Amino acid sequence: MRLALDEALAAAQAGEVPVGAVVTRGDEVVAVAGNAMRDHLDPTAHAEIVALRRAGEALGTSRLDECDLWVSLEPCAMCAGAIALARIRRLYFAATDPKGGAVLHGPRLFAQPTCHHAPEVYPGIGEEESAAMLRAFFHERRA
Known about the structure:
Order of helices and strands: HEEHHEHEEH
Strand order of the largest sheet: 2-1-3-4-5
Number of helices: 5
Helix content: 25-40%
Number of strands: 5
Structural class: alpha/beta
Shape: globular
Low-confidence stretches: none
């Protein structure tokens, strides 16, 4: 999770919402990414999506069923859908997102009968640090 939180900080320093993601396979870091929507002029360039794309390229496959995803914030519906399609084995995330999250909140995508794959989910790892980073980022924007 440390790498995901570091990527979130780098994203914030670049003016992006501070979210970072890391794809691992065993002890190997396969891909690392931070939010890049502003930088890429792409509304789908959430940290999770960018990390999944990079992992697919690095491993030469769209099926990441031996991989785990570490994210600093509960994934939104778009990212949760991509996680299911990629067949991620385990999802670890730091802060929950009652407003925009789709794993424990909102549509709870992985619990839907139409979801063909649901990873094991482990929330709350590094939650305080991630939540503080997000609060500071949005407080600065509103000031």
